[in-house]
Amino acid sequence: MSGLLVIFPTFEAIDTVKKVFPSVLKEVEKTKSHLIVHDTSIKQKTEKSKYFHDLKKSNNFFLIESDNLSMARSRNLCLRLGVDLFNPEYIMMLEDDHGLEKGAIRMLTKLMDRYYDKKMPNNLKAGLFSCCHKHNDFNKKITVDKDAFVPSINSSIRGIGGTNSCFRCAPTLHWLNILKGYDNDEYLISTFQTNNLNLRNYHSGYTVLYTKKYLHLMMIELVLVIHIIKKKFSVDMRKRDGMINTLQVIKEVNL
Fold first, then answer.
1. Rounded to whole angstroms, how far apart are CA atoms 150 and 138?
2. 232 CB contacts (<8 Å, ≥6 apart)?
3. How far is the C-alpha of 105 from the C-alpha of 24, rounded, in Å?
């Protein structure tokens, strides 16, 4: 087997991709990892194609350009193709609003080498790995070592056994034998497509191990409707380019 494969599915969001993708290229090149980019854009197809083809002149990555596919079909396509092309030891799935900080790949591979299939303090084995602490359903952390933690056993099943689809990493054999890819349905994106592999991870006796440091870049584009009544507000989250984005910080707004 050969190193780590990064899978970078992307849809529209050209400005965000231009901010985060160079960091992915830099980490991949530095660690001699592999990279597959799958662009399914519609409105920005021409602009994105030019951007990626220009980068390919001086960078080595595998580019797929296709019609718009569902989240599950796109990721499963890259998963199967990546295994056949590169025979990687590890595979990372990275959403197109996430990049990689310096040292992210080395840290993750070190932790997977050390802890994969080993029993963790929450009594489950380490199966999934992530650098992204956001949008995950766990309420407490248990320290594993100076570099890593796992969710508390008091968290929900999804919080203990799964992590958000924005950043998932695991040994290739774990992707194939335990997670078994993403589940298909009739929608372009759905909880069904992305959540069931988390449940398979948990019900097979595995948890998620997180790096203590945020070793990823995060660019989030939001369309917000903020209603402020007597200093209270609610936020209407809307879809951007077919992908649901998550609010990190809202500053108080004075009308």
1. 9
2. none
3. 10
**Exposed/middle/buried for 207, CB within 10 Å: 0-12, 13-18, 19+?**
buried
For 96, counting Cβ atoms within 10 Å of its Cβ (0-12 exposed, 13-18 middle, 19+ buried), the class is buried
Does the predicted TM-score (pTM) go above 0.90? no
Q: Name the DSSP letter for residue 119.
A: B
Query: Is the domain of 213 the same as that of 236?
Result: no
Mark whether 192 and 225 lie in a shared domain.
Answer: no
Same domain, yes or no: 233 and 133: no
Domain that residue 244 falls in:
220-255
Helices (H), 60-190: 71-86, 104-115, 157-161, 172-174
CATH label of the domain that carries residue 157: 3.90.550.10
Cβ pair 130, 214 in contact under 8 A: no
Calculate ∠ Cα 63-34-117, nearest 5°.
130
Q: What is residue 192's predicted lDDT score, i.e. its pLDDT?
A: 87
**Beta carbons within 10 angstroms of residue 254's beta carbon:** 5
| 185 band by pLDDT with thresholds 50, 70 and 90 | confident
- If asked whether residues 245 and 180 sit together in one domain, one would say no
Q: In this structure, are 120 and 196 located in the same domain?
A: yes
Classify residue 99 by its DSSP letter: E
